[in-house]
Amino acid sequence: MVTVRNDIFLRYDGKNGKSIHLMELECDSVADLPPMEFSDSVKLSQGTLAHDISTGAFYALDSTGTWYAQDGSGAVEVNGNAESV
Question: What is the pTM of this model?
Fold first, then answer.
């Protein structure tokens, strides 16, 4: 499960019909990290941060939609099956 801790609206992308948001997220595990296309109307911005509660790890989203562990260990594989609360 994913919980939105902070949500900052950045802009509206009329070309894709989505609003771009910079978020701080909390998730139960790394498997819960959401895809860049967060919902039908919201796209996550580069720099979105997520805290994995089960391990204490932090992840950041890059401009291609890849999540990177902030301990320097590199990209993480995620399934993108997230539920927004």
Answer: 0.85
Residue with tokens 């771009």: 20
User: What are 43's two structure tokens?
Assistant: 């796209």
Length of the chain: 85
pLDDT in tens, 19-61: 999 999 999 999 999 999 999 999 999 999 999 999 999 999 9
| Strand partners for 58 | 51
Decide: residue 17, CB within 10 A, 0-12 exposed, 13-18 middle, 19+ buried: exposed
- Give the pair of three-digit tokens for residue 32: 């819960």
Compute the distance between CA of residue 4 and CA of residue 7 in angstroms, rounded to an integer: 7
Is residue 85 over pLDDT 80? no
Cα 20 → chain centroid = 12
CB 33 within 8 A of CB 58: no
